[in-house]
Protein: Sialate O-acetylesterase domain-containing protein
Organism: Stieleria magnilauensis
Amino acid sequence: MSRRRIKLIVAFTVAAITAFSFHAVSAAGPLKVYILAGQSNMQGSAHQSTFSAMRDDPAAAELLDVILDQNGDPVVCDNAWIAYRTGGRDGETVRQGKVEIGYGFDDQRIGPEYGFGIFIDQAIDEPVLIIKTAWGGKSLAVDFRPPGAGPYQPSANEKERGNVPEVESVGHYYREMIRFVQSTLRDTEGLTKLVPTYDASQGYELAGFVWFQGWNDMCNRHHIDQYTENMIHFIRDVRQEFDTPTLPFIVGILGVYGTDPDSRKFDKGLPVSDFRKAQFAAVEQYDQKVAARYRGNVVAVDSGPYYELGLSDIYWKRRLTGNWKQRVNQGQMTPEQFQAECDRYGFGDGELTAQEQRTWDRCASNAEYHYLGSGKTFIRFGNALAEAMLQLEKQRPV
């Protein structure tokens, strides 16, 4: 059975739209395996209820036509599957099945894997498997620390306060990530059950790796200072672990506050720009610091252009005015002081307008550091990751 023809955003411009026909649901070659890893924003907070708001933006509306089927329901991929390991309050969990809604924080949410999987699936003939590992609140300096980075060297402040990480915790999630990928790929029977089109005689091809993480390192100056070197070690070590020296590798750049965080008037104390520079530097310096066989095929994909700054303004208006109202009620702030703060930030009388409330209700489903739980953000970023990955694969040495 062939799939219906759809529009697929391709090339590397938002406006470039090319017609692709769905490939037949049969194995045309080795199973294409993509690894996605990171922390909470790789897990994904975007609720499917926010998808419809994409119609309001002409630049995003065409993407909505791709991710919804003819009945207006979110697409379930025909020839792309996912095995997802994560952890939370309920402990470690593994979910697997076709790429669809539900591989984010819960069964109603998505992370970058949804858009990435849909667009990769549409662009290639081979069956696709995404192996995703993501745990919230984890750092590269400690939790995902790669072997090549050596033992963690605590800061003077950590030593003074006695909160030096336990030796066993250093690199724990790096090891768990590698273990889950390896165990998934070694389980031929499990692969066949998960991916019905999987042909064991043709095997699989490790086709690419996407890393999307950073908030916890960004909140720690000691971690920022070592992030560039740690990321370089991480890329090289992953390639060595899987014996794939030219594995296409994408570093997803932290984009909370957009591409120019210093221009924002909220949360000015966070060193987001410094951290972004450390991430970009890892990609720029990578080839200079690794052996020749591990060089090339590493790119940065910035999530900043997809961050909804207008929605962020509403978030901060709700958050700050809510706090001030509470302080007024508790007698810690006078009504005059409340209004003065509103005037300082341009918040009017402190109440959301009808349009602001409507925008918030339709577009947001989580906090700012989780990209406001915006489907528009996660779908567009997933598409950008897929485009970059497809380009890297074209450039990969044979």
In short: Residues 1-27 have pLDDT under 50 and may be disordered. The chain has one domain: 6-308+374-395. DSSP finds 13 helices and eleven strands in the chain. The first strand starts at residue 6 and ends at 9.
